[in-house]
Write a structure and sequence with these properties.
Mean pLDDT: 93
Largest sheet: none
Number of helices: 6
Structural class: mainly alpha
Strand content: under 5%
Number of domains: 1
Shape: globular
Amino acid sequence: MFNIAIFARNVKKAFQMRVREFTLVEYTDIFVFYLNTYQRYIGKEHAFIKTSQLDRIMTFIDEQGIEPCYYDTLIISYFENTALQTDYNINHFFTDGIVNNRFYETCY
């Protein structure tokens, strides 16, 4: 079972690991939207996400130059793309090919 208190603690720990481009609230909002969307489309809770994975994802977000307000649209696009052969894990979404393709498909 996904424990939101542990998740929130891990997000905060990952946020504090290095200087970030965005606020803790912005990263948290992206993660919560992703997890809620995952549950809505997949029908179950997402697997546990380690602090090290959250750190990698936050660093990835920082490097992309995409404002946090765009991620809701990118996440929906990801889950609605039935051509993908994936389990829709958050670690898969936050990779160059996936985020960049979703960005160019939906925002340009």
